[in-house]
Amino acid sequence: MKTITDLKGSVTLSNGVAMPYLGLGVYLSEEGKEVVNSVKWALEAGYRHIDTASIYKNETGVGKGIKESGVPREEVFLVSKVWNSDHGYDSTIQAFENSLKRLGTDYLDLYLIHWPVKGKYKETWRALEDLYKQKRIRAIGVSNFLQHHLEDLMDQAEIVPMVNQMECHPYLVQQDLIDFCRKNTIQYECWSPLMQGKIFELDVMKTLAQKYGKTIAQIVVRWDLQKGLVTIPKSTKKDRIIANANVFDFELSQDDVQLLNQLERSERFGPDPDNFDF
């Protein structure tokens, strides 16, 4: 983990690519004006990392937002994901082409397998490896892969995933998985860091927010960054997008980082990677 400096800061992936450690997630951001504006506001505020997926049905708007922002494409770390119904070698290649078309770009900075579809993700990974070798993707990774999924994939993979994007928040720390990823130079990334809004109900978060004079969201984002985790809080409101990134003028004490680590209760707000049927 590099020093946490500002919104332009990044982690270095195993292949040397710099990945901004704070990004905007656009899950559930509506296609059209809502997502276009969210992306523009984020880029205007200094974000340089936008995370979407084909299943979000808003890639067109994300591409439009990047174009309208005036920020050069090469300055934006753009991420998308291959959906479950597109697993398999040929269909993954096609899904990738379709994503590029919608996003209006000729390459991705990071492409992820969205979920570990049993019996299929190895073929899908082979497609990602080939796209990577063709320099059409700057980095490849996975999402929602538990340790056994990663071990199974790495058993035959030529390239170890560079990123694993997981549901991650104080109620689902999964420190063993973070440690496993670190040991294998897989960058850990958090989705749903705000527990789908439930984080705002926790007394311990209210206390910490008061102690540091920060919002609850800012406390969580800062916690992620201090743990060396990339994080992509989601919002469609301009003031929230700006506020979520206002985390570079304070530091959580080690005791408070530990306090949040200890809230772990293996509680998911999203699907279980071992039991999903979509």
TrEMBL record:
GO terms for molecular function: oxidoreductase activity, acting on the CH-OH group of donors, NAD or NADP as acceptor. Substrate binds at H114. The active site is at Y56 (proton donor). Residues 33-263 form the NADP-dependent oxidoreductase domain. InterPro entries: AKR, AKR5G, Aldo/ket_reductase_CS, NAD(P)_OxRdtase_dom_sf, NADP_OxRdtase_dom. Keywords: NADP, Oxidoreductase. The record marks K81 as: Lowers pKa of active site Tyr. Gene3D superfamilies: NADP-dependent oxidoreductase domain (3.20.20.100). The keyword Oxidoreductase applies. PROSITE patterns: ALDOKETO_REDUCTASE_1, ALDOKETO_REDUCTASE_2, ALDOKETO_REDUCTASE_3. Belongs to the aldo/keto reductase family. This is Aldo/keto reductase.
